[in-house]
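Quick sanity check, RuBisCO large subunit C-terminal-like domain-containing protein:
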Amino acid sequence: MDTLLHTLFEEVVNEDYVIGSYFLVLNRNENPYEKAKSMAVGQTVGTWLPVPGITEDMRKNHMGRIVNIIDVNPADLSSQVDDEKSSYIFQIAYPVSNFDDRLPLMLTTLLGNDASTSVQAKLLDLFIPPKLAARYPGPQFGLDGIRKLVNVEKRPMLLNMIKPCIGFEIEDGAKIFYNTALGGVDFIKDDELLGNPDFCPLKNRVRAYVDASEKAFEITGKRTLYIPNITDHVAKLIDNAKIAEENGAKAIMLNFASVGLSGLQMVREAVSIPIMGHYAGAGPYYEGAFSGISSDLMLGKLPRLCGADIVMINTPYGGYPIKKTRYLKTVAALTLPFYDKKPVVPSCGGGVNPGVVHRLMKDLGNDIILAPGGAIQGHPMGAAAGIRAMYDAIDAEMNGKSLEQAVSESKELQAGEYMWKGRTY
């Protein structure tokens, strides 16, 4: 056995390697060891055919290494396997020196070069060694910083987004903001579709919305934090972030899957306010069953490494068919101890309403942001009443009351119940 190509996990885990774990399906007549070799070599020093010039030093210092080939069917005897196809987990280790902290090159190593390797695989998990992780910034504020920013100690935080999503002028958006902020919501953000268009430019929008927040604060005593969307051409991200901050924004939002994770990292290293990472555009990365990257990596570990303080995620309760295991793994990747990286606040969006508050809090606890949209803006008594209805559902859950009891005690819940009744989980 080629000892430069093969290694045990115990031997490589303390060295400077990232270890990718992949799922793939092969025909019964395909040799999994040859496929794993194609990945380990083809993603590093070689290609699908032997080429001259590859030295032993290159192989020793830069070649990928096969850590494990796991039969998903645990049978040890060939007579026990009758399927025409076989499923495997490959674990491949790649030297950090090949890409250092350059995330685009690491992702290219992990997932690129498919035509050369002729392997279709889905990246399920990624081990990142401590020295490499330390070179990524991680969240600047994290959970504790976000809670302090909105002065909320224990309950889940509440976020709403301006609806309609796009097409309105600044004055219209500011009016929606003000009427929503009267309900005492913690955050109001732009929709992910609204960036810096001519009909609603970022600079003027930030000024108008911050002013609307202050006017509502004078009435409610609760200051609502505005989170503008700075998503744009990557060359304009820093300028947009600075425009937002200089005009009063205390946090910003970025569609990190669309601009790239390195765009998120770049902004994190340039600003001194929290960043909300939005998953918009991430679906093509993880929706393939046999290719791409798992959602808990794309929406969890990687944006946490790159510096998001809040990450918007989907849940199984809003119509999008995300598996519950993946949603829970994503939250684990955002919140569990991970070297020195602060925990990220998961923001649960997509069909959030008073009827799913119990389910989300039971699944995830209180250290989350609940992000209803239509349940607020479409409330028959107005957006402020929609906010109060959400707070009533949260208070009921925190105090051990049933939702039915909360509805009987809240006119806002009663008035909006028709929108979500039957959608409780």
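Posting the structure with no commentary besides this: The domain at 9-133 is CATH 3.30.70.150 (Alpha-Beta Plaits).
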